[in-house]
């Protein structure tokens, strides 16, 4: 039937006709600048993959250490009694970390000396107010093995060197057990400044310091990284998992896919010596990566 005729019939019968209407959009006043930018095509944003995605819990870890392969008597650090009153305390409890990155461009091309100078002058976060000095890192700048801890404690803040307190002494013994003197490896921290009261680093503090550590890793180009403790492991792997979940397998770090092994922090081992056997396995796993 002709449409006009159909409408006339319906009108005559008093039947309302439903018609599809276009939505009426409110008029918005825009400035000429906004109108011009709206006309521009959207620029694609480059996505940089910083490191492996946080590991998903899996029943089949990549490379699990089944047992210690070391046949000799256990090293002394493994069997020693805990030291009381450890000044620097590391708790291995899990916590959620926000992800936050800072631009790396400011230090991306710096050599060792310029980087060290840059860090010594850093006032990017509030920690500069309470530090005695920055703690850059120490050891062999061409080391195969890079040890990354959490942050300077009171002794490190005084001496300007990482891991010089009681935890550092245990770390030295642990390294010796796999055949390394302290000066054969490189030792650095997530933070370059001491958090007051040895509290956990804040997310934004770690984010400000991250480019410094990334540049150190680039310069060293280690064959393997040993992340000691929760704060180190969680920051490097961008994970909220506890050390107990992150240890016992080989992670890959950064664009260089550097093998990374997680172990307990020596300060934690001083308080919980029953975990030393697991740490010994982790050390041997790290060592095996260097021998490949
Ligand atoms: N604990 C760390 O993680 N780093 C240090 O330098 C000292 C104690």
Describe the structure.
By secondary structure, the protein is of the alpha/beta class. The protein folds into two domains: 3-64, no CATH class; 95-290, Uracil-DNA glycosylase-like domain (Uracil-DNA Glycosylase, subunit E). Helix content is 34%, strand content 9%. The protein has eleven helices and six strands. A six-stranded mixed beta sheet has the order 1-3-2-4-6-5, sandwiched between helices. Uracil (URA) binds at residues 88, 149-153, 156, 162-163, 167, 189, 229, 267.
Number of helices: 11
Q: Just give the CATH class of the largest domain.
A: Alpha Beta
Order of helices and strands: HHHHEEHHEHEHHEEHH
Strand content: 5-15%
* Number of beta-strand segments: 6
Instruction: Summarize the amount of helix as a percent range.
Output: 25-40%
CATH architecture classification name of the largest domain? 3-Layer(aba) Sandwich
